């Protein structure tokens, strides 16, 4: 009994410290109502709480106070809820210092779960390797300071897709505005284009917008809502558009094209991955945040950046490769580590036998008298 009381008191104090409350008028006085703790129990592996936020409290206001759980309990926790009732699981086992990338283990999970567009996340506090399906959760934002592990998880995600799918099943379009992160993917069979300048990236978006039209007609003619429902002989390849240093895009027309692709792409099998160092309201506008389903928040410079990225607590992370995954709930994750040499070795297997002198030159948008197949075919020569 005393143990339960002690556990509840710790969570109750956390709510008061962060002022997780709803203010109500009662006659001539004003009262604060805090979450009601319904249950608390502990075993050798975790502490589990069940609580309910006060009626009338906006769940978004509660989410803004989630940082208090990291400050009081550490980052190894899982929070799940429906906007009224929540469960908070605090894991006692710490995440591993380094987690080696093992494609065979990840491949087995993908096949077992039957994922269509698998995105590798990493190890959660319970020791489970987390992989999710972008079919249901499209468009990913990855952010974090240099040295936080952001680049490693990006390579893990991309190399896993390249190893899992054939070039006929999956195509990759890359934008590397830092000009030193994604150049290693040049010449890989799955990779249709690598852009290094914003201006040369604009025609790629025009091409993908045209692809939206083509796939939309395909779905309509076959009376299905997603390319996964198409007959195998008519199904086009999945497409991932990955942009490193998204902050470099300042052209309104380019941004509008990108948002259209991100908004409509899910049903057409076109998915977006954005990577950046520091989230800001100027870059992550309401429209951009509206098309993002998943966030991976590595170490950020402060709470403000963590809140903008919607991973409160990531400013407290002090280990490379550790981050907070915002996918339905906020979960601490250890990303698999993949160094540059290993990335090269993996990709060498999939490089074109006779790549052109300039691998994947910038595309030009189709002219009125130039078909989509002509432009795309030029990439495959």
From TrEMBL:
N-terminal signal peptide = none
- What is a single molecular function from GO for this protein? ATP binding
Task: Tell me a GO cellular component.
Answer: membrane
Does the UniProt entry include the keyword Transmembrane helix?
A: no
Q: How does it sit in the membrane?
A: Multi-pass membrane protein
Under Gene3D superfamilies, the record lists: P-loop containing nucleotide triphosphate hydrolases
Protein name (Swiss-Prot/TrEMBL): DNA translocase FtsK
């Amino acid at each position: 009994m005393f143990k339960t009381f002690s556990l509840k008191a710790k969570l109750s104090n956390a709510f008061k410290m962060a002022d997780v409350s709803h203010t109500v008028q009662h006659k001539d006085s004003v009262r604060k109502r805090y979450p009601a703790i319904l249950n608390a129990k502990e075993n050798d592996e975790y502490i589990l709480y069940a609580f309910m936020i006060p009626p009338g409290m906006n769940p978004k206001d509660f989410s803004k106070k989630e940082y208090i759980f990291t400050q009081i309990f550490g980052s190894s926790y899982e929070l799940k809820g429906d906007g009224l009732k929540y469960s908070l699981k605090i894991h006692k086992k710490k995440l591993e210092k380094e987690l080696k990338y093992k494609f065979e283990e990840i491949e087995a999970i993908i096949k077992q779960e039957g994922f269509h567009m698998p995105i590798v996340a990493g190890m959660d506090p319970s020791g489970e390797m987390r992989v999710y399906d972008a079919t249901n959760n499209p468009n990913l934002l990855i952010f974090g300071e240099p040295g936080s592990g952001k680049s490693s998880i990006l390579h893990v995600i991309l190399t896993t897709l390249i190893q899992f799918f054939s070039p006929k099943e999956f195509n990759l379009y890359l934008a590397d505005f830092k000009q030193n992160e994604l150049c290693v993917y040049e010449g890989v069979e799955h990779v249709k284009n690598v852009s290094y300048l914003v201006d040369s990236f604009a025609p790629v978006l025009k091409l993908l917008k045209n692809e939206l039209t083509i796939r939309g007609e395909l779905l309509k003619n076959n009376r299905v809502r997603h390319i996964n429902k198409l007959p195998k002989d008519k199904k086009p390849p999945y497409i991932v558009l990955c942009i490193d240093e998204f902050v470099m895009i300042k052209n309104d027309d380019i941004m509008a094209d990108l948002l259209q692709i991100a908004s409509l792409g899910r049903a057409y099998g076109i998915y977006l991955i954005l990577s950046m160092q520091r989230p800001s309201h100027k870059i992550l506008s309401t429209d951009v945040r509206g098309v993002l389903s998943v966030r991976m928040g590595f170490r950020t410079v402060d709470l403000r950046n963590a809140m903008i990225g919607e991973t409160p607590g990531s400013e407290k992370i002090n280990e490379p490769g550790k981050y907070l995954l915002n996918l339905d709930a906020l979960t601490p994750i250890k990303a698999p580590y993949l160094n540059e040499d290993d990335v090269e070795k993996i990709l060498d297997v999939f490089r074109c036998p006779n790549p052109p002198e300039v691998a994947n030159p910038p595309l030009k948008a189709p002219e009125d008298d130039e078909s989509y197949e002509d432009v795309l075919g030029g990439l495959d020569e």
